[in-house]
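step 4 of 6: structure.
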Amino acid sequence: MQATLENYSKPYISDLLTRKVSIAPLVTFRVIFGFMMLWSIIRFAANGWIKSLYIEPTYYFNYFGFSWVTPLGGPGMYWLFSIMALAAIGIMLGAFYRISAAVFFLTFTYVELIDKTNYLNHYYFVSLVALLMVFLPAQKSFSLDTWINPKIKKNKVEAWVRWIIPLQLAIVYFFAGVAKLNPDWLFEAQPLKIWLPSKSDLPLIGISLTKEWVAYVFSWFGALYDLTIVFFLLYKRTRIYAYLAVLAFHIMTALLFQIGMFPYIMMLSTLVFFPDKYHEKALNYLAALQAKIFGKQGVKFSSRRLTNNGSIDYNMHPTYDLNRGLGKDSKRQNVALVLLSTFLVIQLFLPFRYLMYPGNLFWTEQGYRFSWRVMLMEKAGYAIFHVKDNKTGKRWEVNNRDYLTANQEKMMSTQPDMILQFAQYLEQVHQAKGSGDISIFVESYVALNGRNSRLFIDSQVDLTQIEEGFEHKTWILPFKQ
Amino acid sequence: MKVFSSIQNTIFAVFFILLVSCDDSGENGTTTDGFDQEALLSNLGENYIIPAYTNLGGDINQLETSVAAFANTSDISNLQAVRGSFEVAYKSWQSCSMLEFGPADATILRGSMNIYPTNTTQIESNIESGNYNLDAASNASAKGLPAMDYLLYGTGFDEAEVVAYFTDETFGAARLQYLQNIATDMRVKVDAVLQEWVPSGGNYLDTFVSSTGTSVGSSLGLMVNALMLDYERFVRDGKIGIPAGVRSAGVTRPTAVEANYSEMSKELAVECLNAYQKLYLGNALQTDASGQGLDDYLTALGREQLSQDIDAQFTTVINDLSALEDRPLSVTISSNNQSVLDVYAEMQKLVVLLKVDMTSALGVLISYQDNDGD
């Protein structure tokens, strides 16, 4: 079915979704995303993390149901990251775009699934965006693909295609804000009350960070920021100030916390909220720069020209087709919209799944991950595993560091599912060594948000008898204030 | 427009707050509810750390001198003198073991000073071949205080036998040479670390005092991480846990104790815990005069109870260690291991208080590895 201009003048909701808009914001986002990912991979490799996180450990905490995702060993992991980097370049340049995006999504997600020790909300964000990018026509302008095959070029996309990335960002911010609406954050200014004074060595602002009221201001401002920033970014009159707030907020978090690439990814990603004309200008500027370097053959965003009165004169472009870029196959588009809706509904549900579990979420962490709970807890723990030989009655302690890296041990000691996984791994190790009937108990202490440490897991429960899964973990001791 | 002005105001308000708060505290460097980290660090540096290395340096120097005298005249009275200096030096080391960050970390001082159980076979084969490099990884457990512990106490049943070991016609000279070499090796390394710390040398003290904050690279971050690593691995496990069998499926390893031959294990453990408590309290090494310590920092952060609990637990561990039977620790482990395991359990409680409660109250990241968080 050929869409015509008349179809789009009717004020249906579906029209809002399928209304044609400039492809430029999606294209700049593609370039930015590819670039940020490439930078992240280089940084990751330069820090030696491929080796220390994915080659050196002897044990990996897999996600329930994903035990088949295992590291590829010495050269294998380096190859995997190299392929991932090439795919990121492919995304950035729009080269073999669909394949690049798919390969990037698969390799990145594979790596993230290897070990939940390394779970970060921003890695989850990257996986989600990468998955979206596979299906978005972000290569249809200003790309190597259009240079190779100009026929695929598009200047316009349906509105939902342009707004899906902003929507994804909105979900991140909004849920991060909702997560901050908890008593510790709002009324105790925890964990900022602990973290901020520890940064008192920062120049200029450092000394103010030791003041208690500053922690409250940061907490409340942070919650307000997360909950409202998207609205201010959407609203024309506030947009520029909102973006300044984005910069201020994320530069601040980059200075204060060791959170890697996240602030930079957010600062650049939120540019997608700016109107089409800025993105077109940016791309044309890049195209001009390219033309200077490569001559005429440079990849151009679009050859539209502006008329005297500043509006775009489509007629001056001989190949411009008003209908190009509109969904020719509405069935396919409907399928896409249904899948997309499912994708979004799942994301809206995941942050609330914790309500299905009794107990304090921060304590039990049942339903904690994949919910945009960022920087919410100062949680430290220490877990001592006791092995009991049921035949001889002998008991001894495990040296966790014989099996885990320092980082794994640290993450494991505050997260019940990892404690259970490790206990069951210890059982396997001991049985492989020929120990017969053994029981494993954990004596673990956890301190949460400035409270004294308390026993975390019921130390009388034999963890070898517990089944891994999503059921409520009754062996976590109740949280006491 | 209303929204417009409110966001603008918010931004201004935040910057204004930041500016104002920088302003009113810029003069004296401290705030009412803040804590002067520089004062804490300079107290620890000047009154504990540098005196500890100065002491150790002097004692190791003395040890080297006594060893030289013994090499000159290998008799019982000179052996007694060497043993005397050795015991003093081994005790001094207990105040330095936990300071394995900065210069000590760069020099790998603990690796040169106190890796045990010592490898007697390696020592003997080094002596026989006469061809060895003490800096080689293979010789890590053939040097330092534990090697000397063996050479001075483990090579004979009594003093006369030990003297005979060193006056042996075939190997006597080589053995004396080895003794001198390991003494010199220790002296050189301790001196290097001390020189790095003192203001007249590398002045690491200045770096230490000015690197405030609690990030991984800050002085507090470095020190607390070094303390925890030393306490867990070399104090709790090394001195008590491993010999008592907690790391070997309940099978005891009595001879794995520190200073097995001179039988100073218990004494050294008490000495070490005393040093830890002193450092925690910020007390001066020599005079025990009270100063700014981690306990004061915790109190300033509103964690007075925790601050006292940790101090009390140090005292408990020290008392329990002292209360162990008055025999070599290796014998106690063989005869009454439960009493040792009980001490171990108390030492374990201290790990929880330090590693979980203290670090999380201070905001120190416990990580021997750099990584992002969120």
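step 5 of 6: annotate
 - The CA atoms of residues 340 and 346 of chain A lie 10 Å apart.
 - Chain A touches chain B through 68 residues (CB under 8 Å).
step 6 of 6: archive
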